[in-house]
Design goal:
Layout: E1 4-9, E2 12-17, H1 22-28, E3 52-57, E4 60-65, E5 76-78, H2 82-98, H3 103-111, H4 136-145, E6 151-153, E7 160-162, H5 177-181, H6 199-220, H7 223-226, H8 230-237, H9 259-266, E8 286-291, E9 301-305, H10 309-317, H11 323-336, H12 340-355, H13 361-364, H14 374-386, H15 389-394, H16 398-409, H17 413-419, E10 422-423, E11 426-427, H18 437-444, H19 457-463, H20 470-490, H21 495-498, H22 515-529, H23 535-555, H24 576-581, H25 583-592, H26 603-629, H27 639-645, H28 650-656
Parallel strand pairs: 1-5
Antiparallel strand pairs: 1-2, 3-4, 3-5, 6-7, 8-9, 10-11
Helix pairs in contact: 2-3, 6-22, 10-12, 11-14, 18-20, 18-26, 20-23, 20-26
Bound molecules: iron/sulfur cluster (SF4) (2 copies) and FE2/S2 (inorganic) cluster (FES).
């Protein structure tokens, strides 16, 4: 709980949190004071001095600028004392003398009872859109866009705002953050290289995102500071981090690869870093000057792009809690062109099979592939890239390995199926889905398989508890994949949709959808094309593509219910040690949801009951989602659905007509 401090404002007693800015406290107490350089989305600067108030602290009075004065003592505040009024009047007279036609200056002067200035400036500027040197644009460029393109030059009356060397800086991306915060309209953006239909519409909505990013990211996700690595900390805390081939959801050594460790020991920029110019989220991170210990570049100093969440979580999944390992694994996956998620999940599966005795050193070419085998994992990665040894097999992925081990080594197929953390042949991205039915189906029922950009339901379901009922989950599994399809169709990044949640989102009717951000995307589409987009139209066009994808799956021999399954490891505890690790939670579920008393039952019995229930839940959610999508019970689009969508083309009907039962 924040420390409270009692202060008086014009003799009104109020309590405020320590470090509240005086301007906020004054406004909250119902008093008004003029501001000019202040902007709600920017760090206060205190340069115009119009918000000056008088405070009394320990019996002494002094002037402070309210916008950047943090309250730390029991002060008395006078917002309208005689001295304050005189001070403000003097200031606004000077402003008026220099910029007599600027509306915001005129407005404040009028409010303070000043109609004329006694101070005639030698550089009076009659332009109503003159620059009044408030510095908001400089701060916006720095804080919203992480650039320092704008700055002040000159001294005294020659002071002016400019870009370096008075030239248009090529780093300026025309984001208009500066224009958005300018109180006079001094900044005009004229360059529209992509010829959008309505650039103002795009900018106005993009601007909101930039402002939210600048003000909320530091308190919500710290994407600018540590990138997606912040998710490692969250997932570990919520027992959702994949550990040991998704057996467990947290680990005591996670601190060795979490965002604190990465920031303290590895990330080198010390600043936000975007993967494309203009992204105000800037979640990319880099490790510079890293000396490699293995592989073809051993001994060399390299720069490593990352690590991001999935790579760190992949390391946890392999039980490799070591920062140096993580960075080296990241580097070589990137260098070899190997997907970190598929590699880590496959190796975690191999490790479990190794520990279970399904494969031995005889099969691995001598590699002791226990969880946490750092050196061996890197050796295996090099083998995969070079097409040598056991790496040749591991590079084929989980499904291929499972088939080979069953066929050639007589392995227990049921157990291997249970721990095969793949669906549709794609390795599951690094989120523990066991406790989230919505996320199990989010992966399993995705046309393209359990890919990481289908992973957001876990946050809504488990972390934010936005999908409490079965119906909520089914509806989410209809809406969100279509919403995801829109990102793909528009070629837009998904992260800025939901990684920052607007401050007032909780008051929205459908908060899980982040409606304000959805609308930003619609307006972007409209601003680019001139065609209106709304939720109904978005769902229609995405559903056309989604159903077409499903029919293509069918053409390739997939696209039916049997291919929408998830291994039981993704739904519940396969082994006794998993059940025991969460016994309290599972026992509670047996008792409260199924009405089964766990007392006196063996772990095996309890596991069997839980499994039956969870498998049924998955089937039920599958039924509900297929119905909502307009598909048959076998997961094939109905002819009626294609008609509704206007894509009942003869060649498509031909493909689905024998699957309508
Ligand atoms: S348009 Fe954006 S990048 Fe360019 S100067 Fe303004 S704030 Fe900076
Ligand atoms: S251009 Fe606008 S925002 Fe920038 S210093 Fe001048 S008045 Fe302030
Ligand atoms: S608004 Fe506080 S100093 Fe300008």
């Amino acid at each position: 709980m924040a420390e409270k401090i009692q202060i008086s404002i014009n003799d009104k007693i109020v309590k405020v949190n320590k470090d509240t800015y005086l301007l906020d406290a004054v406004k909250k107490a119902g008093f008004g004071i003029p501001t000019l350089c202040y902007h709600k989305d920017l760090t206060p600067d205190g340069n115009c001095r119009l918000c000056t108030c008088e405070i009394e602290i320990k019996g002494r009075r002094k002037f402070v600028t309210a916008c950047n004065y943090p309250i730390r003592d029991e002060i008395r505040v006078f917002t309208d004392s005689k001295r304050v009024k005189e001070h403000r009047k003097l200031l606004i007279e000077m402003y008026l003398g220099r910029w007599p036609e600027v509306p915001i200056i005129q407005k404040i002067a009028k409010r303070l009872g000043v109609t004329e200035s006694r101070f005639k400036s030698s550089v009076t500027d009659d332009n109503p859109a003159a620059c009044i040197l408030c510095g908001r644009c400089v701060r916006a460029c720095k804080e919203f866009m992480l650039e320092e393109i704008l700055g002040f030059a000159g001294r005294g009356i020659k002071r002016h705002m400019t870009m370096p060397f008075y030239e248009v800086d090529p780093h300026c991306i025309g984001c208009t953050s500066c224009a958005y915060v300018c109180p006079t309209g001094a900044i005009k953006i004229v360059d529209d290289l992509n010829n959008p239909f309505d650039p103002v519409m795009i900018r106005n909505h993009g601007m909101k995102i930039n402002a939210e990013m600048a003000t909320l990211d530091k308190i919500q996700n710290r994407m600018r500071e540590v990138g997606t690595a912040n998710i490692v900390d969250v997932m570990n805390a919520y027992d959702l981090l994949p550990v040991h081939n998704y057996k467990f959801g947290s680990h005591p050594e996670t601190y060795k690869i979490d965002s604190k460790m990465l920031k303290a020991k590895y990330f080198t920029q010390g600043m936000a870093d975007g993967c494309w110019k203009g992204c105000s989220m800037a979640c990319a991170k880099t490790v510079d000057g890293f000396r490699l210990k293995t592989g073809p570049y051993r001994g060399q100093l390299v720069s490593v792009d990352g690590p991001e969440y999935e790579t760190a979580a992949g390391a946890a999944n392999m039980g490799c809690f070591d920062g140096d390992f993580l960075v080296e694994f990241n580097f070589y996956c990137d260098t070899y062109g190997i997907d970190t998620i598929s590699a880590a999940t496959t190796i975690a599966f191999v490790m479990e099979a190794f520990e279970a005795g399904i494969i031995t050193e005889k099969h691995t070419g001598g590699l002791k592939l226990n969880f946490g085998a750092l050196r061996e994992v890197l050796e295996l990665l090099h083998q995969m890239a070079e097409g040598k040894g056991f790496g040749v097999d591991v590079g084929q992925g989980i499904r291929w390995l499972r088939k080979k081990w069953v066929k050639e080594y007589g392995a227990d197929e049921k157990f291997l199926c249970d721990i095969s953390t793949e669906s549709k042949g794609l390795e599951i991205s690094e989120y523990m889905t066991k406790e989230s039915l919505a996320q199990q189906a989010g992966y399993g029922l995705a046309n393209k398989g359990p890919q990481h950009d289908e992973a957001w339901l876990i946050f809504m379901d488990m972390v934010n508890n936005q999908l409490p009922t079965f119906e909520d989950k089914a509806e989410a599994l209809y809406y969100f994949p279509l919403w995801r399809t829109l990102f793909g169709l528009m070629g837009l990044c998904k992260i800025i949709w939901n990684d920052i949640v607007p401050a007032n989102n909780k008051f929205e009717k459908e908060a899980a959808k982040i409606p304000e951000h959805v609308n930003n995307y619609f307006k972007f589409f409209e601003g680019m094309t001139g065609k209106e987009l709304n939720e109904q139209k978005m769902l229609l066009q995405s559903a056309r593509v989604y159903n077409l994808q499903r029919i293509m799956n069918l053409m390739l021999g997939f696209g039916t219910r049997e291919h929408d399954t998830m291994p039981y490891r993704a739904k519940g505890p396969v082994t006794k040690e998993e059940y025991v690790s969460r016994a309290e939670r599972y026992d509670k579920q047996l008792k409260e949801i199924l009405g089964v008393d766990p007392e006196g039952k063996s772990t095996e019995e309890k596991m069997a009951i839980l499994r039956k229930y969870r498998e049924e839940q998955y089937e039920k959610v599958t039924d509900a989602v297929f119905k909502r999508r307009g598909w048959t019970k076998n997961g094939v689009p109905t002819i009626e659905r294609l008609k509704e969508l206007g894509i009942d083309l003869p060649e498509l009907i031909e493909i689905i007509k024998n699957h309508q039962e």
